Amino acid sequence: GxxxxxxxxxxxxFVYLHSSDSWTVYRxxxxxxxxxxxxxxxKKHLMGYDKLPEKGDILFITSSYKDxxxxxxxxxxxxxxxxxxxxxxxxxxxxxxxRFKYIYVAYDNDSTGVNASKEFTTRYNLRYWNIxxxxxxxxxxxxxxxxxxxxxxxxxxxxxxxxxxx
Length: 166
Known about the structure:
Order of helices and strands: EEHEEHEHEHEHH
Structural class: alpha/beta
Largest sheet: 4 strands, parallel
Number of strands: 7
Radius of gyration: 17 Å
Strand content: 15-25%
């Protein structure tokens, strides 16, 4: 039941091994989504989880590994499920809540991300933050930093903390 592909210059393929039994294949030049990504056993894998400390103040749950990396550049801990449609297991969320004082869900600022954020934050009593849409195509922390720079992203995050009394 697997489709196989060989990477070429005209159609490169990147394989990300998340763990010994979880992987994603990414073909950036493919137009149709069905063949752009192939994923295996991603529901049990949380990107960035292995980089978390035992205890911390703030954790972001975001929607992609590029956002995890962007937030790490600013000194924030972050994790990401492989899709905004994946609702994390309650046991995992309770574990994260026991390790971090504040957890913010920072999914994409589009209808899918906003709806998933609302459902997720309501279900687990978490905080919500999304970036302003002040650049075309700007919907996540990575996009925002490309448009406005890391310093402005950090200022925006700190303004949210201040509004929340953190």
